[in-house]
Q: What sequence folds into this?
């Protein structure tokens, strides 16, 4: 959120489904929730998509148990689920619509707390503008060039690495240090 407040955040791409970015105050237009989140719900298999207030789904499940979600299904014409992406489902259109422009024009890429093994999310690292510095804040190396096309080269010396850095530590620690530097 600090980067957004300072006017320097183009977009935050997140694999988290817990909505913490929004709870922290990140504006909706600055977030790509690639695996969805619990901010909204929808009736499955409808075209056009029929949105359902997440609180309505919450009440049906928490207060009505099995009878509650069945009643909601009956009322809506099909099952209602949070707008999260399950394995095998497509990522949201917004991910595909914005990633090329966002990454191609970024002047700094910051990657936090990830293994960078699941595509297509992992390939975002290699999509950053060719001259953009890239910072990984993580407890272990991830997305390195020997495992990922155009991956991080922070383990290389000299001319082999001219733009990548790795903060070896927790996301909290790395973000506090970055915030102090800003």
A:
């Amino acid at each position: 959120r600090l980067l957004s407040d300072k006017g320097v955040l183009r977009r935050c791409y997140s694999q988290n489904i817990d909505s913490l970015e929004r709870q922290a105050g990140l504006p909706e237009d600055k977030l790509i929730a690639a695996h969805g989140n619990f901010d909204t719900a929808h009736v499955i298999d409808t075209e056009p998509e029929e949105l359902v207030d997440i609180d309505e789904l919450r009440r049906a499940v928490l207060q009505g148990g099995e009878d509650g979600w069945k009643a909601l299904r009956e009322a809506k014409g099909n099952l209602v689920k949070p707008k999260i992406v399950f394995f095998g489902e497509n990522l949201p259109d917004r991910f595909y619509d914005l990633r090329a422009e966002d990454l191609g024009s970024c002047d700094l890429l910051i990657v936090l707390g990830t293994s960078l093994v699941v595509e297509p999310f992992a390939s975002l690292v290699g999509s950053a503008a060719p001259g953009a510095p890239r910072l990984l804040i993580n407890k272990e190396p991830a997305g390195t060039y020997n495992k990922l096309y155009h991956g991080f080269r922070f383990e290389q010396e000299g001319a082999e690495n001219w733009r990548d850095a790795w903060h070896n530590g927790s996301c909290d620690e790395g973000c506090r240090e970055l915030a102090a530097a800003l």
